[in-house]
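ok so for the tutorial part 2 we go from a plain amino acid sequence to predicted structure tokens. step 1 is just haveing the sequence, like this:
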Amino acid sequence: MHGQHSALASHRARSRTVSPHRTSGAIPDAFLTRLKQMAGLGDADLDILHGLYEDERSVRARVELIAQGTRTQRLHVLIDGWACRYRLLADGRRQITELLLPGDICDLDALYVRNSDFAVMTLMPCTVVTLDRTALRTASQRSAGIADALGWLGAVENAMLAERNACLGRRSAREHLAHLFCELLVRLTVVGRTRGGGFHMPLTQEEMADVLGLTSVHINRVLQGLKTDGLVEQRGHDFVLPDWNALRQEAGFRADYLHLEGIDGIGGDFGATPWAFAGPSRPIVFGL
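step 2 — the prediction. this is what the tokens look like for a chain of 288 residues:
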């Protein structure tokens, strides 16, 4: 126990003296903000987690953060930007299993397992920090709030994976693409990464195909269909969704699986209708 406390203390000593809700570059810390809103963490627990931050750095787009099958002692937290988890088959085919957004831990599994079952790659320039797995486990043993927050994050990841499997196995390509748009809007709204009702989505068409398990040609055809039916309007690299209700009905989208109510309802209004923040009469804009 003394050794665990010493490890935690040494990490605190190396931490930067900045606000626990911002990184040293003054980027709002979506990870700590998310845990405060959804898991109800108080300032003391947030300070502990912030004190564990190591190796804050900017990472270029399309850089592999974690290689599939490698051992790691650190967890990677996405403070800003987009990344993805993916699995490679023996013949090089790729399936993107999750899009990682600001506030996400890229490799929560590393808290308990040493070898990564997936790879992680940035999709745009990102800000990333790392957390030492031993120090984080020690912190969770000393704080029930931190332990609950990590458990909640794991539960949400499981629910999202189940929804992703349902999309891949049973939803049509059109439903799946519409569902992806709906999910991204809600997730980015919660962490404050929408601008004027829209957001930047840095995926290539090939990457979108790897998310949806389709070909690039099929993705283009489905997108054209959504545009023809008035559910999506394209303006250069921006996508406007003129009828949110119609789009989510097309997708069969319900936000329940994102568990925005947080632990025991602590998330409050975030668990209701976060998409309404854009205003009921305004179009919703996506950047692609």
